[in-house]
Design a protein that fits this description.
Blueprint (H helix, E strand, L loop, with lengths): L4 H9 L44 H13 L1 H22 L4 E14 L5 E16 L5 H68 L4 H15 L1 H19 L34 H22 L4 E13 L6 E11 L7 H68 L4 H35 L17
Helix pairs in contact: 1-8, 2-4, 3-4, 4-5, 4-6, 4-7, 4-9, 7-8, 8-9
């Protein structure tokens, strides 16, 4: 069923998946991708399954691995896959004959040759078997629906896994950004403390007014409140990461600082076929296939059902010198004649579920393309923003040095230095946010492409535990 993705995707985007005609899975040859789509993409090589290692931070790698191993949501999704696996096994079991056995034992009395009563014991072991011929494919269609539902459950599990990977990576990047914001706040607070000391000395010696001294005090207090705000945000972020990793709230190990993380190279071209890797798209596709098979199975319920039955056994009795063999063979045909409209109502419900799955698949495909385009735009634009903010930070730092020198020499008021300090702090915090957004954009791009832009199949077999 996996090879049906390109054709279903094209039909969904073109609006061809309508509630009327039945959606069928084409053959593998009809939907085979072009010969060149598996080649190495220009601008960069394929990314491995552990795409988060591309950032080059061992602490991030260990955190994501721990989250994949211990996250509760992944465990719940895996249990649902096992439930769907059991349902598929139950559907496949309907193809096999049903064999059962019974033993009936009775006690009584009988009259002997001279009219004297005697105690008799009889036993009748019996083996019975039944087999549904499935002339119209009702069981086969039900089994196919169960198989597709199993694959859909596996897609849902992979969607959760990918979301946990992306959440762990993005939360770690946010944590490192908060660490850097805290460091900026502390460095700025130290500079404000020095400025306040100078302003106090100038005020006490009569070189400046009380206004400048109060302005320095207010600016110091405004900077000091940034420290507990950043510390609170760090504590909350660490608790969120601990929850993702399946741990109790606690500190998170740090690795490289934010400005030392590697920026992965984006290939020049990303073919649309890469969206076939997305597990949510695969889940929606298999849900559609399952709903379609369930509809066919419901339609087959209108046709007669032929079953073969047979039984064989022996009768053992103390009054008989030899056992008596018994056997029976037969067939039964069950056909609906009048059911008060139950089958029609069930067919209508199955049709509505199939239509819902078709529309959900189309919506998932459209969302996939939008998310990829948004992520690519975010990576490009945040990079441009970070470059501009880096230049602003450099210029603001030089301006602060000039304003400080002019103020100490008495050529300019304290307000110029104060304005330069505020401009530098704002630019530094904005740069940290832009850098974090840039790395988060890469995480979102990885996630929107189903785990990266590698040119090889990524989905593990559904039987893999």
């Amino acid at each position: 069923m996996r090879t049906a993705a390109p054709l279903l995707l094209a039909a969904a985007l073109a609006g061809c998946v309508s509630p009327g005609p039945r959606v069928t899975a084409p053959s593998a040859a009809a939907v085979a991708p072009s010969a060149g789509w598996r080649t190495q993409l220009p601008g960069g090589g394929p990314v491995t399954d552990d795409w988060w290692t591309a950032f080059g931070d061992p602490a991030l790698t260990a955190l994501v691995a721990r989250a994949l191993a211990r996250n509760v949501d992944i465990s719940v999704a895996t249990a649902r896959v096992e439930e769907a696996r059991a349902a598929e096994a139950l559907a496949r079991a309907q193809f096999l004959p049903q064999v059962g056995g019974t033993v009936t034992e009775t006690e009584g009395q009988s009259l002997g040759p001279r009219g004297t009563p005697s105690r008799t014991v009889s036993a009748q072991p019996l083996v019975s078997a039944s087999y549904d011929l499935d002339l119209f494919g009702r069981l086969r269609l039900a089994s196919g629906a169960a198989r597709a539902q199993l694959l859909a459950s596996a897609g849902a599990r992979d969607t959760v896994r990918l979301a946990i990977m992306a959440s762990a990576a993005s939360c770690y990047i946010t944590l490192r950004a908060l660490d850097q914001r805290l460091q900026i706040a502390r460095d700025t607070l130290a500079a404000r403390d020095e400025a306040l000391r100078i302003a106090r000395r100038r005020y006490e010696t009569g070189y400046s007014s009380r206004l400048e001294y109060r302005q320095a005090q207010a600016e110091y207090a405004a900077t000091r409140q940034l420290v507990p705000v950043a510390e609170l945000a760090i504590a909350r972020q660490e608790n969120a990461l601990s929850l993702l990793a399946g741990d109790a709230p606690g500190p998170i190990a740090r690795g490289l600082p934010l400005d030392r993380l590697r920026l992965p190279a984006i290939p020049d071209g990303l073919p649309a076929d890469l969206l076939r890797q997305r597990p949510d798209l695969f889940q929606a596709e298999q849900t559609l296939v399952s709903a379609d098979a369930s509809l066919d199975s419901q339609r087959a319920a209108f046709l007669p059902n032929l079953s073969l039955t047979g039984s064989a056994g022996v009768v053992l009795n103390t009054a008989l010198s030899n056992p008596v063999g018994v056997f029976a063979l037969g067939a039964s045909i069950l056909a609906p004649i009048f059911d008060g409209g139950r089958l029609r109502a069930q067919e209508a419900a199955a049709t509505a579920r199939r239509d819902q799955a078709a529309y959900a698949y189309r919506r998932t495909a459209l969302i996939a393309f939008r998310e990829v385009d948004d992520a690519l735009a975010a990576v490009v634009r945040t990079r441009e923003q970070a470059v501009a903010l880096s230049e602003q930070v450099g210029s603001s730092r030089d301006a602060l040095q000039n304003a400080t020198s002019r103020y100490r020499a008495g050529y300019s008021p304290y307000l110029e230095q104060l304005d330069a300090q505020r401009t530098l702090l704002t630019a530094q915090l904005a740069l940290v946010q832009a850098q974090a957004d840039q790395f988060t954009g890469f995480v979102v791009l990885y996630q929107s492409l189903g785990g990266g832009w590698r040119a090889t199949a990524t989905r593990p077999p559904v039987n893999a535990r």
